[in-house]
Amino acid sequence: MLSKKGGCFMKGYALIGKNKTEWRDFSMPKINPYGAIIETKVVSPCTTDIHLLETGAVDNPSLIGKPMGHEMAGIVIEVGSEVKEFKVGDRVLVSATQANFRSLEAQAGMSKLADTNQYWMDDPERGGTFVEKYYLLDADMNLAHIPDSVTWEQAVMTPDMILTAFEGVREANIEFGDSVVFIGVGPVGLMGVQAAAIRGAGKIFAVGSRQVCFDVAKELGATDTIDYHDSDYVEEILKRNGGPVDRVVISSGTEDSLSIALKLVKRGGIVCNLASYFGHSSISIDLEAWAFGASDKTIVSPLCPGGRLLMDKMLKLIENGRIHPEKIITHKFYGMEKIEDAMQLFINRDRSLIKPVVFFD
Amino acid sequence: MLSKKGGCFMKGYALIGKNKTEWRDFSMPKINPYGAIIETKVVSPCTTDIHLLETGAVDNPSLIGKPMGHEMAGIVIEVGSEVKEFKVGDRVLVSATQANFRSLEAQAGMSKLADTNQYWMDDPERGGTFVEKYYLLDADMNLAHIPDSVTWEQAVMTPDMILTAFEGVREANIEFGDSVVFIGVGPVGLMGVQAAAIRGAGKIFAVGSRQVCFDVAKELGATDTIDYHDSDYVEEILKRNGGPVDRVVISSGTEDSLSIALKLVKRGGIVCNLASYFGHSSISIDLEAWAFGASDKTIVSPLCPGGRLLMDKMLKLIENGRIHPEKIITHKFYGMEKIEDAMQLFINRDRSLIKPVVFFD
Amino acid sequence: MLSKKGGCFMKGYALIGKNKTEWRDFSMPKINPYGAIIETKVVSPCTTDIHLLETGAVDNPSLIGKPMGHEMAGIVIEVGSEVKEFKVGDRVLVSATQANFRSLEAQAGMSKLADTNQYWMDDPERGGTFVEKYYLLDADMNLAHIPDSVTWEQAVMTPDMILTAFEGVREANIEFGDSVVFIGVGPVGLMGVQAAAIRGAGKIFAVGSRQVCFDVAKELGATDTIDYHDSDYVEEILKRNGGPVDRVVISSGTEDSLSIALKLVKRGGIVCNLASYFGHSSISIDLEAWAFGASDKTIVSPLCPGGRLLMDKMLKLIENGRIHPEKIITHKFYGMEKIEDAMQLFINRDRSLIKPVVFFD
Amino acid sequence: MLSKKGGCFMKGYALIGKNKTEWRDFSMPKINPYGAIIETKVVSPCTTDIHLLETGAVDNPSLIGKPMGHEMAGIVIEVGSEVKEFKVGDRVLVSATQANFRSLEAQAGMSKLADTNQYWMDDPERGGTFVEKYYLLDADMNLAHIPDSVTWEQAVMTPDMILTAFEGVREANIEFGDSVVFIGVGPVGLMGVQAAAIRGAGKIFAVGSRQVCFDVAKELGATDTIDYHDSDYVEEILKRNGGPVDRVVISSGTEDSLSIALKLVKRGGIVCNLASYFGHSSISIDLEAWAFGASDKTIVSPLCPGGRLLMDKMLKLIENGRIHPEKIITHKFYGMEKIEDAMQLFINRDRSLIKPVVFFD
Q1: Closest approach of chain A CAs to the CA of D222, in angstroms?
Q2: Residues in B 260-299 with any Cβ partner in A closer than 8 A
Q3: Gap between the Cα atoms of B347 and D14, Å rounded
Q4: Which CATH number is B9-156+324-359 given?
Q5: CATH 3.90.180.10, chain B: domain bounds
Q6: Residue of A176, A179, A322 lying closest to B314 (CB–CB)
Q7: Which chain C residue lies closest to A290 (C-alpha atoms)?
Q8: Shortest alpha-carbon distance between residue D121 and chain C (Å)
Q9: Burial of A239: CB neighbours in 10 Å, binned 0-12, 13-18, 19+
């Protein structure tokens, strides 16, 4: 196990370059009056971390040398003088998107576009959540109290997995009884299945390829599981549904996904894209599926939102037993240094993996 | 048991006057090309029927002499020449609101306001659903196929109980994690609790007075049950919720309900009224609760909608195990003549009653 | 001039094949109880007609041998027995999209997808509006009374030009003060400019190439006109607007249009496509402009709607002086046979043409 | 004229008690890093000021002794170290509602409910805008640059008159061609008429009693003016409109207004209340007009919003010639001390008054 340093240093798991990481000591930040420092209790690596690792963060060179990670929960150990809602000792969830709410984007209801999360920012003093102690700029706006009955592992599924999926389902505007297809049932897709079920969907098709995901999809509300290796899976969905579906959510995408989604969805329906398409310059839309431009099919592409209010709402869903994010956790590690093992599962494309968590002690 | 007449007569349970009903023979209608005749399998009396009975339908004198009732399911026994989607032998649900979809109201998305349901219309040849054989004007628009896995008793909860409640919850526009209060947990209120739970509510407060309703409320998703006989129940809700709630749905109302709802709901929140206020000329709004006119509290008051599409969607929720309307049925009767016994439960204000159904054979 | 035939024949301008038309006699239809026959007073050819002519209607072979056209207004000369709202002698506007409102599509608020307009249907007895007398199936649903103060030429701009443009602007959901770009300022784009101006847009950029269109765009509310031949026109718009715009409406499109629109629109904004992309199998989306899938940019693609209610609303805008569709009419012809001359303007790509009308007498 | 003091004192027009005001010297505040000080150029008294004066601010005793006023524009003379978007010398508009955007209310899109405007706050150092120099807490969030082509008097109509009215019209969700009634055509009602016209309304009924208001209403887009002294004015509107209207906006209310509005609006329509009802404990809803609770009539009651983004949008409407707020200004005064004369117009219920402005030099 790594020795935990006291004083003004803390250990972090830093990205060094393409496929290279390193444990480094980082100096403790001096907090601003609105800030807080959180002792990390649990983190969860994500495919975005792997993407950054495997590309060496070519699109965000400022990330090199900084701690990785953006999903975490922990305990408040220091707060700035102006922090009103949080105090030392509180169990808290940290927002993955840490907006500057004093922004025109926030005034427009799009705070997520005013992200100041250090993970992404060009600020040498800031970094990700794979550290012993994590500093954030605006505690009152970007932390949330974890209710007693919510576990650490449930909590850490919230800032990215749940919020991305639930934002997608919200934007997909599912109505009571609607049929919905999820293309991709990794952790975000599975949380989407859960979201659709508690948003009132009727039939839910989970499109994937792994039995471990299908099993969880069924538990979370899918009515049908579909293997995309079957060459006629689009026709199979259309047949089982008795025609095109009301909504499609893409959480794992290839160059064909948008066109497939447009084929699956009915006119007047909505396609919600949650997938990232890196490494390509364009993606195409099949014109026949798009009715040559007059399809009345809407395409939305929401980014994960954040902030205290939304995290509070999601935590209420867990607290009241409406959703069960712990079901997507397939691997648990104990000890900060096990972040490496958790990352390795992604790198190996381990077919038993849905989502890992790493408890720091 | 009543003898069932063949040929051109059918038995019906008619409203004759204030607190007076009678079994009468009605002549069989001649159907139009778009119409259908349904052999009744199950009906359910409702508080609206009792209201009409106890007032002698003072506001709708044309109802006198006609069969009562508006909730039913049955089997198609005759269809007009232009009916495309239904055939003799089909198990079908009948819409309580039977819109004329060829209307400007329907073009405006408010087909429910172009209701041609015979129960309400000033047409001597038309009547309610408490008859052996029921005639409706437009089968393709106002019937729905009952899926094999949906029972008669589940189905008959759909046209009024489910559709009224789900319309209310839809108009209340509940967002993930929202806190919701239901004032009144009779059958519509309970279906509202269920609707809120599968629409993503967090905390759900069920306000009522009877244990039988509280028990079902808990099963359907309520987190808290509140007895309105407790003088401080409004404060109790505010305390448990940590402040005003996001949404309030009134399904059973008194002259105070709207003001109480406005006290309970937060600014920016929505109050949805599903209650009827007969016997009064006005209802008042507490101005302080309404912030003297600038509260940003929205008040909606939706009528039950109908039509095939919505019934199909609701039936999909039952078919896929999302909702459990059978839980609100407390009394089952067998034999058409038992409609009288079912009605008597309402008249007696039987405290064990939530919702009765009467199977015709 | 063509001789007008009485009795049971009427003259029509029929599509015969690729680049081939012919004047033919059509037998008068026998109307159904809900139908009506309209004596044509004015029609307007449209680019869709030209597309059908130049391709020989390859995608709709049933159109061959039928009258062309879908924009018209006229006088009622016969109504079916069940028609309630229209009588012989009424000045009426005919819906271009003639929905069957007795359909699940209409119940879903998408009546336009249940189009029974004879122009498009596989019914040998039905055809387009370039005829002396036009038969429609459902008068009460698909006609609208033309107010006295509205001229024939204003009226005939309604069923396609105005309704397509206004539906686009409605779906673009313009908010007060929003900046909007119109890519393409032909007749639909210009009506879009007008719609945006009376929907509360701030800055309106009209992107086109012809001075005649720019002049009308300015009159109808454009603040800036932009020539797309300027290689840096996208940058010019971004500069003048001080960054990306709130909304983009594409009414005239090439393979690049969708990507250009995504470059122009801000995150959180909406791109509305009204253009048709025939002759291609796919259209591409620039991934950088789409933020690799997480752009929060919404893409909508509405079809022209129809029906009496919407036409009534649009006619109210003309009647009350809110909009001035007559400004897009550049050419007027008198005499039914002049349809040929009007069509020729399109075929010649006449640079002075925005929209022609042909009065039948 | 009042002598303008330099140094650390500034003159202000303070509320002292019921019907009592006084010119006082206030010490200059020390600004925080996000704050700014604005030299006042123009203010406008409003009925809210008169209400506070005539009641002695019984409901807000902390206002006693402070400067009055909340509508102003001026020139930046000092900015805090963290202010990024404004500098000394800028012409700026000051938000009437000065939200703390670092709040859960703002995260919920309701920043107006987190108002920190000193006018309303229990902070002895803060006050209204009727001062030589005005201090606000968060310049980047609550100021807006006034475009060169926008005059001071146009600008000062924005923070309350325009924003209240436009918020009301936005919440009334007017669709193209809708008929709208404005009950009350004082300055907010008139700006509402303008808003409705540029939001796409068809017929606009302006209900009031003074010719000066009717004249401006016509200029701003009203199609019909209605005197509420005519005993049958409700019937007159219903007759002219051919039935109930789509939307009603109440900007000036009595105890009957809500019931009248519900009588005027169609089922499925919206009533938007912008009026304040002080001095009463409740307001009643006519149950017949509300269809006894199932009317599908929505009631909204929005407060005036604020913030830079919205002010920017409104200023763009002025800058681009879409709206003409200067038309509601009936009285102009020059010299700060003339605030008294402007206030007197309200006190006298001067029938020629719509809205006054006071230029400070």
Answers
A1: 31
A2: none
A3: 65
A4: 3.90.180.10
A5: 9-156+324-359
A6: A176
A7: C301
A8: 30
A9: exposed
* pLDDT value of position C279: 84
Separation between Cα atoms, residue B309 and residue A257, nearest integer Å? 29
Q: Verify whether the Cβ–Cβ distance C281 to A283 is below 8 Å.
A: no
Question: How many other C-beta atoms are found inside a 10 Å radius of the C-beta of residue D312?
Answer: 18
Would you tell me how many other CB atoms lie within 10 Å of the CB of residue B170?
18
In chain C, which residues have their Cβ closer than 8 Å to the Cβ of D203?
316, 320
Give the helix, strand, coil percentages of chain B, each rounded to 5.
30, 25, 40
Tell me yes or no: is domain C161-300 CATH 2.102.10.10.
Answer: no
Chain D touched by C145 (CB under 8 Å): no
Cα→Cα distances A30→A35, D51, D192, Å: 9, 49, 51
Contacts of B282 in chain D (CB under 8 A): 259, 284-287
> What's the CA gap between A234 and C96, in Å, rounded?
34
User: Which pair of tokens denotes residue A354?
Assistant: 């849905």
Pairing mode of beta strands C265-273, C298-300:
parallel
Neighbours of C334 (CB within 10 A): 12
Q: Which residues of D touch C177 (CB under 8 A)?
A: 312-317
Q: Is residue B46 within 8 Å of residue B304, measured between CB atoms?
A: no
Residues in chain C: 361
Distance CA B264, CA B258 (A): 10
Q: Is C20 on the interface with D (CB under 8 A)?
A: no
Distances in whole angstroms, Cα of residue A123 to Cα of each of A31, A140, B49: 15, 21, 70
A107 and chain D: CB distance < 8 Å anywhere?
Answer: yes
Half-sphere exposure (Cβ direction) of D336: Cα atoms closer than 13 Å: 26
- For chain B (361 residues), the mean pLDDT of every run of 10, in chain order, is 50 94 88 93 95 88 89 97 97 93 93 72 70 93 97 98 98 98 98 98 98 98 97 97 98 94 98 93 96 96 96 98 98 97 96 98 87
Query: Residue C219 class from Cβ within 10 Å (0-12 exposed, 13-18 middle, 19+ buried)?
Result: middle
| Measured torsion, CA atoms of residues B122, B123, B128, B133, in degrees rounded to the nearest 10 | 180
Chain B: touching chains (3 or more CB pairs < 8 Å): A, C, D
Interface predicted TM-score (ipTM) = 0.95
Amino acid residing at B176: F
Contacts of residue B3, defined as CB under 8 A and 6 or more positions apart, other chains included, come to: none
Q: What is the pTM assigned to this prediction?
A: 0.95
For residues B41 and B359, the answer to whether their CB atoms sit within 8 Å is yes
Looking at residue B184, what is its pLDDT?
Answer: 97
Is B306 within 8 Å of D300 (Cβ atoms)?
no
Three-class SS of residue B23? strand
Q: Do B277 and D292 touch (CB under 8 A)?
A: yes
Contact status, residue D114 vs residue D103, Cβ threshold 8 Å: yes
At D284, is the pLDDT very low, low, confident or very high (cuts 50, 70, 90)?
very high
Give residue for tokens 């509405």: C302
How would you label D16-38 residue by residue, b for 16+ Cβ within 10 Å and e otherwise? eeeeebeebebebbebeebbbbb
Fold of A164-300: Rossmann fold (3.40.50)
In contact, B202 and B226? CB cutoff 8 Å: no
Q: CA of C308: which chain B residue's CA is closest?
A: B104
Nearest chain C CA: its distance from B263 CA (Å): 32
Cβ distance of C200 and D199 shorter than 8 Å: yes
CATH topology of domain D162-300: Rossmann fold (3.40.50)
Contact A101 D104 (CB under 8 A): no
- How far apart (Å, rounded) are the C-alpha atoms in residues D240 and D264? 12
Q: What share of chain A is helix, strand, coil (3-state, %, to 5)?
A: 30, 25, 40
